Amino acid sequence: MNTQDIKTKEDAYTAPTYARYDVALVRGKGARARDPEGREYIDFTSGIGVNALGFCDPAWVEAVQRQAAALQHTSNLYYTEPCARAAEKLMALTGMENMFFANSGAEANEGAIKCARKYSFEKYGQGEEGGGGRYRIVTLEGSFHGRTIATITATGQENYHRYFTPFLQGFDYAQTNNTASLLETVTDQTCAIMVEFVQGEGGVIELDRAFVSEIERLCAERDILLIADEVQAGVGRTGRFCSYEYYGVKPDIVTLAKGLGGGLPIGGVLFSEKTKDVLRAGDHGSTFGGGPVVCAGMEAVLDRFADGSFLKEITDKGAYMREKLAAMDGVAGVSGLGLMLGADIGGRDASAVVKACLARGLLLLTAKKRLRFLPPLVVTKEDIDEGLAILAGALAEAPEGNQ
């Protein structure tokens, strides 16, 4: 089928929940994809941070194909070798104690929320109304934690809170990088503080070190669990395996997804020594979580981080891309870490710029009226140069003014 045929069929038979561009992709390699007509696109999105190794990495493809031909699914009533190996490798990379396999970032965050509430329920008992006395979770304005009822409630952005009331109780929102707001928001009923150390959907905004230090102090003094949502920023995206490593903190719970499976749906809730035994048999579960095929893909991703050289490459390429962006006409500022970058384009319409880039052969994202860059971790400097040249042309033609 050509692009128009694909678009017509999908529009006819799938719900209109996405504001899609008029582009269909049929094949890819590394940081480049092609449409049915053979046109090439440089990819600065990696499927919103999912294709960590780019399109069709040979080692990843071989691992997934081999496992799919051997055993595709068993249920979590039984053990499988890929699950065991993948979990071991992830614990070695993060220093956490054990984990729960989920299918997505939202599901991982659901598991983290349940663990935090059960921890406080068991340790501090019931409240006056029979529920946990400490059950509230503080998140940050500008955060994004998922689209289930619990995680959309945890998300600190009002535009995601339309239509779906009533929401789950027990979430409070502090202003990002505002210590006074944090202190006002945390109460005796707070069981956890859940943060993205780099807010992706919130505009690629990293947390201030002093603000993180205050979160760490509060958690230590009051036995509040620190949950690190690393769904977008984790798996090497920022040049560290997890972004919290930049701040020298050790969370009690870590959530991962997106790049973890290299293109297959997987999520993980990682537990520290403090939380590793909170969820027990019957407390949580998943039909598809940790299946053999996705765990084989996860292994292929994790193997790239074995000796540290891959992280150094990500850091170097991120610095290169950041320097090029900062020097570009039309870019007023750059934020983020590693290959997770955001650009302020001085009042230009970010969505219009993305469409102009698409017409020139560059896949790009927006976040909070800014441009967002999440290229595959295997992106080359040649890819970066060609992609940024396309962006420069689009910015040169974009009108200035309020969006």
In summary, what is this structure?
By secondary structure, this protein is α/β, with parallel strands linked by helices. It has helices at 3-13, 46-49, 58-68, 81-94, 105-124, 149-154, 179-185, 209-222, 292-303, 309-326, 350-360, 381-397, and strands at residues 27-29, 32-34, 40-43, 98-102, 136-140, 171-174, 190-195, 198-199, 205-206, 225-229, 253-256, 267-271, 333-337, 340-344, 362-363, 365-367, 370-373.
What's the arrangement of secondary structure elements?
Elements lengths: L2 H11 L13 E3 L2 E3 L5 E4 L2 H4 L8 H11 L12 H14 L3 E5 L2 H20 L11 E5 L8 H6 L16 E4 L4 H7 L4 E6 L2 E2 L5 E2 L2 H14 L2 E5 L23 E4 L10 E5 L20 H12 L5 H18 L6 E5 L2 E5 L5 H11 L1 E2 L1 E3 L2 E4 L7 H17 L6
Fraction of residues in helices?
25-40%
Question: And the CATH topology of the largest domain?
Answer: Aspartate Aminotransferase, domain 2
The CATH homologous superfamily of the largest domain is called: Type I PLP-dependent aspartate aminotransferase-like (Major domain)
Low-confidence stretches: none
